[in-house]
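ok posting inputs for the S-adenosylmethionine job
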Amino acid sequence: MERKFNNYMSKEIRNSITEKAEKLWGEDLHKNKLNSQHFIQLKNIFLTHWDRELKGDFLEIGCGTGADLEYFLKIKNLKTVTAIDIGKNIDDLKKKYKMYSHANIIRASALNLPFEKNKFNIVYSFGVFHHTEYPTKCIEESYRVLKKNGVIFLYLYSAHEDIFFKRLGILFEKKLMQVYKSISYSNQNKISGVLSPICWLIFTVPSRILELIGLKKFSKKIPFFFGTHPFSLINDLKDRLMAPVNHRFEKNEIKDILESYKFKEIKIEKNSSGLYIFAKK
Ligand SMILES: C[S@@+](CC[C@H](N)C(=O)[O-])C[C@H]1O[C@@H](n2cnc3c(N)ncnc32)[C@H](O)[C@@H]1O
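and the output
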């Protein structure tokens, strides 16, 4: 398991993953933009744990635009709120949230957290570990910085081992990522602009029709079901296709990984959007 997700990458490849991540998110997608909030998905799935556990010292790993961070900063029961990301835009976030005296916003990597062990009651990370070269190292680091009985709330990409259409989509994604790797950043941007209306027509429109005829659950299994207009998918396409790496986990794989790091009370909900995870140290 370790091997599959650690993959023994050379230093050059590891550096290039970091560089690409910094450029895509820190200097482009997250520069001066506020994403939609994602915490609500984990909250809805693990409502009881969420209400019970959100107190004490909190760490968000990979805070991106700060959309979720803004919510956490306002939770009264959180004594301190720490957020890290490797993106340059972290400096803007530091300025933006300087009025929160309990906030600590730092530019750092999930692979090497600049904190002593047993520091946090909660680690939260949405859509980050699968974009790093060693997702298992991110899990190991999360475990290290958690206090005993501390909890992790995590969202990761799913391998969708049981959804045929999604697996087809993943295959297509892999092929396109190979093409993207051979062209310049600006051309990757242009292609994403062209692909957005195409994906909207092929995926979003049929998904909307299914929803209209009452097949709501099935409509959500179609990629890009959330599109709102022909060009609404550009940033999602960039997020997927221009990402340096997209690891995907089967439900049992992630359970085994968490167990191997001694996490307990592991709960994993898999749906058509991905893997939603709760576990305790
Ligand atoms: C898809 S975005 C998700 C951002 C945010 N969590 C959200 O839900 O909108 C991935 C984020 O992971 C960050 N990231 C990638 N590799 C990282 C690493 N090694 N350490 C910390 N953050 C990383 C990127 O800079 C980016 O902000």
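notes: The beta strands are 56-61, 78-85, 103-107, 120-126, 146-156, 264-271, 274-280. The first strand starts at residue 56 and ends at 61.
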